[in-house]
Amino acid sequence: MQMPEPDGAIIARRVEIAALLRAAVPDAVIDDPAETRAYECDALSAYRCPPLAVVLPATTEEVAAVLRICHREGVPVVPRGAGTSLAGGSMPTADAVVIGLARMNAVLEADYDNRFIRVQTGRTNLSVSGAVDGAGFFYAPDPSSQLACAIGGNIGMNSGGAHCLKYGVTTNNLLAVKLVLMDGQIVDLGGPMGEAAGLDLLGVVCGSEGQLGIVTEATLRILPKPAGARPVLVAFDASETAGACVAAIIRAGILPVAIEFMDRPCIRATEAFAQAGYPDCEALLIIEVEGTPPEIAEQLQLIRQIAEGFSPVEFRESRSEEESRRIWLGRKSAFGAMGQINDYMCLDGTIPVSALPQVLGGIARLSAEFGLEVANVFHAGDGNMHPLILYDANKPGDLERCEEFGAEILKLCVEVGGCLTGEHGVGVEKRELMTTQFTLTDLEAQMRVKDVFDPQWLLNAAKVFPLSVSASRREGRNDRKGTSAHAA
Amino acid sequence: MTGKGQARMRPESVEALAEIIRLTDMPLSPVGGGTRLRPGEGQGARIETGRLSGVTHYEPEALTLVVRAGTSLQAVQELLASEGQMLAFEPDGRAGSTIGGVVAANASGPRRVQAGACRDALIGVQFVDGRGEIIRNGGRVMKNVTGYDLVKLMAGSRGTLGVLTECAFKTAPIPQVSLTLALPDLEAGPAVAALTRALTGPFDVSGAGWLPERGALIRLEGLEGSVAIRRQTLAARLEGFGGLVEVPGMNWADLVPEARGGDLWRITCQPTEAPALLAALPEPLALDWGGALIWVELPPGEMPVLPSWSGQAQRVRGTEPALVPPMNSIVARLNRDLRARFDPRGILVGEG
Question: Sorting pLDDT into bands at 50, 70 and 90, what band is B352?
Fold first, then answer.
């Protein structure tokens, strides 16, 4: 993974910069090289680099104070939620100060009549739902890492989850944020129903991978919990048939809250790991519907009718909480199970649902060509694929081959009308592939937005855009130091 | 609609549109059907998208539609309905509206409380910016976080960053049953409390508004049996507000009113703030989104005097643009700078 050469002049000033930061936010600065090592990577752990220093502020004002200093001194900044990014979104550089949100995890306000919760953004995703559960509400986006991942990171990457087929992703559930700009100015974006006059700045900040500012508070939409939910498991003797069944369900006008897909290699691994009792089959779907018992029965009857047209090997309806738990068990432990038997790389491309057979066929061909196994598990309803490529990190050359293979799969996703990433973000991982999906003009338009929010390109700068494409802006950094943030 | 002596251009292709923008030095007003112009808008030479029309791609089983911006909203809705689908949001159907105009205005009707706004259903755009460059963002898949979300930035940008030429949307199945229930005796203020009761329970309400002649209105949609069950449990929950009656053939587009001679104001707020705002205003023309949106008519030129609240009031019909409270200075600077980046010559004129 190529990263820009760190600025030696900044590294040489480490002690001085740490002292400046410490004067502004005492007890929140880590600059002992033994301790900064804990922040050297995120969940893309194949790549590591200890930062210059780490600051763990407790308030928005402290975040602003740190950013003001870094802005004045021309020091790059890497924002970090919980460090669960699979794309290297919070991977530091040696000349950067990491601003971690870990200490900012308070619930500021839960307003049930107006159906929102306002939290500090270091709070974990699951604990947001936890905070409103007792009142009968939940926060809908549910990334697999929801036990650990922070709302700040969810906003940075516009995270999704299994249930976004019905409830949408982060951007559809985010109503307002408090954003600290690189120059330390604090601004509120959004408003009631997520709306404010003028351009939708909230919309462009969500998913900007920490490049436009640091979000310290978020107002999130909460929803009344449905009366109940129940999954069914449908097994097929071919992946293509499972894909066709998904299309038929959606075509019939039924919108389940989740449709998950697993293929044989994935089923085999999760069975060995979690013993969920899945049938012996080529592919299976887990389809979840919500409502009161009669509403659930009404939807499941329709789904069963449709599924039967595709001669499933098995149609397993849950009859109890315990059976529901077992149906979800294998899916939820899929990533852990794969990690047990191998190192793996998790991809995240999205494809039009109609292209599923073509893409699965293409992945199988590439798998043979590269000599690496792939297990497929994904959100079938919205076409967001998660092929897991298995490799051996101890085998020289295996990681590189795996990355090449992954890049080929993502190019295939783009070719059939899809995209490189559906919910994980670009980070450093897919940065260099951006030109397969976008023209230079398209990328230039996106970079102009960063020019407005962060004219010196100090925030998380070596991410998202191919290094050669962002080079002139990043390297212009030192020349522009001290110039007005308002310059055109 | 076109003013005297005002130039009009109707480019036949995206490339021709880009060339016009590159070569011109006069102020331009991008216009779709011209049905949603606000005070101060539409003053430049009109650049119309009517000839950039037609469906590019429609995949019902993937719930996705790609359509050129000048296509009429009605044509889009008819095509989707022929496949048992609809747009995943709910634009009001003004005669002559184009789909690009709907997006540029982020026109989002009652379904916003359940399914989100236009910006939430919009998954891709192509546009020509003020430099005359053709830019794509997003795509035609539902989940996509590749690069910055300029799709959101374009939704509601009212022609100030560029001219939309193509839009991709998430579609949704038309519900088997759509049932409108009313609490006819409620005034606007008390109606908000009733709507809040409905929206805070597991009823999957897809519309929650108020009209002077109809009272509080609640819409339930879905499979037949499910709607019947929710209707019962909702009736029990709303017992304290009077009896729920069914409103057959309700047209929810009525929730987006027209002014009747005065200025039309659009006020957003938290629902619990609505009663205090309503007390300071004449009877509203409509409430929507459970009370988070107030439509009210004021005498021409008059400004509302309101207790401080968390939303904004904007004049959307009248002579002069007006916003209460005014935009925060940092937000205003970000808006101005973004416009300057996408349209450095300042030829795309909007309000203000």
Answer: very low
Kindly state whether residue B92 falls inside one of the protein's structural domains.
yes
Pairwise CA distance, residues B150 & B171, whole Å: 20
The pLDDT assigned to B350 comes to 65
Q: Assess if residue B346 is contained within a domain.
A: no
Give pTM, 2 decimals: 0.96
Least CA distance to B66: which residue of chain A? A417
Query: Which of B148, B289, B328 is best to mutate for the A interface (most A CBs within 10 A)?
Result: B148
Domain of residue B54, residue span: 1-174
pLDDT in tens, A267-287: 998 998 889 999 999 999 999
Q: Quick one: pLDDT band at residue A486, thresholds 50, 70, 90?
A: very low
C-beta separation of A387 from A363 below 8 A: yes
A31 at interface of B, judged by CB pairs closer than 8 A = no
Final residue of a structural domain among B144, B174, B204: B174
Residues B258, A349: Cα–Cα separation, whole Å? 44
Condensed to tens digits (0 to 9), the pLDDT of residues B243-264 reads 999 999 999 988 999 888 999 9
**CA A258 – CA A249 distance, rounded (Å):** 12
Quick check: B229 and A430 CB within 8 A? no
Asked whether A386 and A420 are in contact (CB, 8 A), the reply is no
pLDDT of residue B2: 44
Q: CA A6 to CA A93: how far, in whole Å?
A: 7
Task: Quote the minimal CA–CA distance from B185 to chain A in Å.
Answer: 22
Nearest to B196 among A113, A172, A225 (CB): A113
Query: Which residue do the tokens 């300042």 mark?
Result: B346
Q: Are residues B240 and B128 in the same domain?
A: no
Q: Are residues B92 and B203 in the same domain?
A: no
Put simply, the answer to whether A419 touches B144 (Cβ < 8 Å) is yes
Domains and CATH numbers, chain A: 1-225 (3.30.465.10), 229-335 (3.30.70.3450), 342-434 (3.30.70.2740)
In the predicted model, is pLDDT for residue A484 greater than 50? no
Whether chain B has a CB inside 8 Å of the CB on A460: the answer is no
CB contact under 8 A, B149 and A207: yes
Contact call for B229 and A294, based on CB within 8 A: yes
Q: Say which amino acid occupies B46.
A: R
Q: Are residues B37 and B148 in the same domain?
A: yes
